[in-house]
Amino acid sequence: MIERKSGDELLRFTLMNGQVRGMLCETTALCQRASDLHNATPVCAAAMGRLMTGTAMLGVMMKGEDEYVNVTIRGDGPMGTLVAVANHGDLKVTADNPRVQLPLREDGKLDVGGAVGHQGRMTVMKSLGLREPYIGQIELVSGELGIDFANYYTVSEQQPSLVALGVLTSGDAVLKAGGLLLQPLPGCEDATIDQLELRSPMFADISRELSFAPKEELLEDWFRGMEPELLERVPLRYRCGCSRDKMERALISLGRKELQSLIDDGIPAELGCHFCHSTYSFTVDELKDLLEQATH
Ligand code: ZN
User: Fold this and answer.
1) Which residues, 6+ apart, have CB-to-CB distance to 34 below 8 Å?
2) Ligand 1 centroid vs 244 CA: distance in angstroms?
């Protein structure tokens, strides 16, 4: 039996002796934190939560310590652009408009696709330390995001995948949130894929499933008889990582012309972080110091 641990965490596992690799995660606290930080409406909390959960699974696949992944969704919905960043288990998210309100869908669920938009682009940028970044871009399929992540893996990484993402809310509270990724690897037997398809209705509504049982129990129940083997557990947390130092570098990289125009304004420059809403203020004298460091 897999040891039960509460809290946000990602479990990496295999099925059928390595024929399938998978990830199952709970992201309830992460999604609540994002919802609180951005003062999000339920449908926007769900959209940002699903995006962050999908991004967490990509983030955990990265090997190097300084590697991170950035997923940007530019849909034609009222939320505008959504961005999530994962540095291994450290997550953050932002959206242009997190206050969108939409009626529930006919099936009683939050209309995430309506808020994000059914058309647009999904861009995955993997920053690989000293190597050139990897950039994958695809059209959105639905804007519901689970199916969009699945499509990204299948089309951009040539890796057929099943992805379920879910955020269950009640008013401003995130009750449960999480995600599942299943990837049959080369050489996977047809019978194994048939088994996954047969069982897929069990994990379709993942946030509700998580509200009934801990993730470890779900892993054992869903894949009974398929030799689920736990490989790794990764704690997940909301962490921005912005700092005054990074803001200074961002200002310097604006270039001399932009900096001079800020100095000419004669008032302190206020910079806000989109991911955690921290603000950083730079006086005119400080801006002048930065101007001296700017090389272009
Ligand atoms: Zn920040």
Assistant:
1) 40, 45, 48, 49, 52, 92, 93, 238
2) 10
Ordered alpha helix ranges (H), the chain: 28-37, 42-61, 112-116, 146-156, 190-199, 206-212, 215-222, 244-254, 256-265, 284-293
- Least Cα distance to 150 among 110, 192, 188, 196 occurs for 196
Tell me, in angstroms, the distance from the centre of ligand 1 to residue 30's CA.
15
Distance CA 220, CA 271 (A): 48
- Å from CA of 101 to ligand 1 middle: 25
What separation in Å is there between the alpha carbon of 91 and the centre of ligand 1?
11
Give the Å distance between the CA of 229 and the centre of ligand 1.
37
Residue 11 dihedral angles phi and psi, to the nearest 5°: -105, 125
Each residue's pLDDT, cut to its tens digit, for the chain (296 residues) gives: 889 999 999 999 999 999 999 999 999 999 999 999 999 999 999 999 999 999 999 999 998 888 999 999 999 999 999 999 999 999 999 999 999 999 999 998 999 999 999 999 999 999 998 889 999 999 999 999 999 999 999 999 999 999 999 999 998 899 999 999 999 999 999 999 999 999 999 999 999 999 999 999 999 999 999 999 999 999 999 999 999 999 999 999 989 999 999 999 999 999 999 999 999 999 999 999 999 998 87
Q: How far is the CA of 162 from the centre of ligand 1 (A)?
A: 32
> Whole-model pTM above 0.85?
yes
DSSP string, 249-260: HHHHHH-HHHHH
Cα(286) to ligand 1 centroid in Å equals 20
CA 115 to ligand 1 centroid distance, Å: 24
Q: Ligand 1: distance of its center to the CA of 274 in Å?
A: 6
The CA 68 to ligand 1 mean position distance, Å, reads 16
